[in-house]
Amino acid sequence: MPFLLASAVKDLRRRARDPLSLLLWVAIPLVTGLLLDLAFGSEGSGPSAHLLVADRDDSLVSGLLVGAFSQGELGELTRVEEVDAPAGRRRIEAGDASALLVIPPGFGADALAGRTSTLTLIRNPAQQILPDILEESLGLMLEAAFYLRQLARAPIALFSTAGLPSGAATYPDSTVASGAVTINELVARVQPYLFPPVIGLETAEPEPDARAERGFAELFFPGMVFLALLFMARGMSEDVWRERAQGTLRRAVVSPRGLGEFLGGKLLAGAVLLAVVGVAALLAGRFLFGLDLRGVALAVLWITFAGTAMLALFVLVQLHATSERAGDVLTTAVLFPLAMAGGSFFPFDVMPGWMAAIGRRTPNGWALDELSRILSGQSDLAGLAAAFAGVLAVAVAAFLLALRRLRSGFATGG
Amino acid sequence: MIQVESLRKEYDGVVAVDDVSFTAGAGEVFGLLGPNGAGKSTTIGCISGLLSPTAGRIRVLGHDVMRDSRSAKSALGVVPQEIAVYEDASAEENVTYWGRAYGLRGGRLRARTSAALELAGLGDRAREPVKRFSGGMKRRLNFACGIVHEPRVLLLDEPTVGVDPQSRVRLLDLVREQAGAGTCVLYTTHYMEEAESLCDRLAIVDRGRVIASGTLEELRTLTAERDLVRLTGRFDPAAVSAGLAAAVPGVEVVSTDAAHLTVSVEEGSRRLPALFSALASLGAEIRETTLTRPSLESLFIKLTGKQLRE
Prior knowledge:
The structure holds two protein chains of two kinds.
Chain A: H1 3-16, H2 19-40, E1 49-55, H3 60-68, H4 72-77, E2 78-82, H5 85-93, E3 99-103, H6 107-113, E4 120-123, H7 129-151, H8 153-162, H9 173-194, H10 216-237, H11 239-245, H12 248-254, H13 258-287, H14 296-319, H15 324-341, H16 353-359, H17 363-375, H18 381-410
Parallel strand pairs in A: 1-2, 1-3
Antiparallel strand pairs in A: 3-4
Chain B: E1 2-11, E2 14-24, E3 29-33, H1 40-48, E4 55-60, E5 63-64, H2 69-75, E6 76-79, H3 91-101, H4 106-119, H5 135-147, E7 153-157, H6 165-180, E8 184-189, H7 192-198, E9 201-206, E10 209-215, H8 216-222, E11 227-234, H9 237-247, E12 252-256, E13 260-265, H10 268-281, E14 285-292, H11 296-304
Parallel strand pairs in B: 3-8, 3-9, 6-7, 7-8
Antiparallel strand pairs in B: 1-2, 1-4, 4-5, 9-10, 11-13, 11-14, 12-13
Helix pairs in contact in B: 3-4, 3-5, 4-5, 5-6
């Protein structure tokens, strides 16, 4: 086994004996991602209200009212479940829904006859916004029903006062025809107000923004991955101080194989660990967050390349510090601004434009953007090749500079 | 096997090693004896390639350590003063790894790892993590890592510092075994008794310079078989320096201050009454007296005016 590989195996074995630090580096971003997912959901639909309905009237009108909660955008926001009133109260007390709507018997008849009727909405006190939305929506519906009843008083009266003939399942044709004529006259009367011919309304919908369609987990996921890479790269870079303190770096200097293979082995071990973490992160993204990931193999390769380049850069920073403590402070001072600006804490999509523009120009921000493109299948071959070449060049340059610093006295305490 | 010629090493203008020259051959234990900070470790550092000499030339088996460092390093085994092993790895993993660093592979690597661990008395603890080892065991592992590739030249930099007596005896035996097998050993120490029991030839260094060198017998002759008498009390340095030699013929003042006096004298025990009498007449007050027979210690004191451990 060449000394380069032996050095990498040696470092991997040492890491395997200290799994806690490795787990911590990975766990912090993963736990953050999980919390975000739990808080906002991975479907990207945002929060939804759960409305329990106890319809004790079971009339056409009450059915229309309940059905209105399932229509249009309100329907996307609200999940309606029919229950009986006692069960609904118990569930509200248990905090199992946003609100309970109780429709009293005779509500439909009262509404058609213009008599006062009382609906009861019991809110879940543990929730703030969702019960508010339901209450406001119910208020709007009742107001609309009032105006509709005023406008359609005649056809309503026709049906409500005539009622079904005894023994008939449907209204007689004469009543239906009369009602149709009345409604037609009503529509003709209000047409100028509802469909004013002088005002043309053109509705233009912009192309759906692909980013806006993305869920929270998908939005945060690449950033979380890069946060883990940054933590790992920084943590592993501290090993040069450990090697110096325990004298093994000096031993490496006096061995004929020298420092090149020694340092190369360290980066190689780091690359293996980064690849393992990359695979684990992508699996977690798929199975925990349900992300639709494309180009997984390419993404792992990219994570490994970018992470190794970051490791080489952090090693370079450590080697220029005056002490282990200074190295710790210096790399931390580098890590957090890079993570914040580079999209690991806040996705570029939610940053102000100027900040996102700066963030995308940081090394990790640029690499993160590339990962997002790979995962969404938007990367092109030429761009990818250039990106890999760029990362490789950075890694090699950092490696050579680090090697130079090692040889120029770091190993001997200079 | 080792040739050091006019070696000089400066750190930021401070001279750590100045004009040091010596040679050491196969099967020989050559000692560098001197107090802490004398330049011993710097000399070892320059030979091993850890440090770049400011001037001078060093050859190991004919290879210039600066121009042909890889060949020179391949011939060297280094046991540094600080324990240099991976505490989070096993003893076997440590020795194997450093064996690979010297090009050992396959069956030979396994055989040499096993042999080095057995030599160091760690054969039965080979698979244990080093962090469970005692200080002495770590020292022996440090030694095993340095000899795993059977180096023809072995550099040992104070390998017994902080070691329990049992491990120390074992380490010294190991050094003798290596030399007995034809290895050239360069051994630095500030323990006089180690140097006397182990080294075939010695160079005594102080403040970066070699102040005496030769075999043990050659060095002992430099003391002219004179005893050292060290006195503690109250002295007038000027009066003692001027009058003692005249008052007691054959006495030589090595060093003196207001509280200490060191003199060299032949047959010291017989001359003590005359010495005390002369000092009393010079106004001295004596509280404690120590007489040392001729040794490296007395030679060192004679040459430098101070003790090795000062």
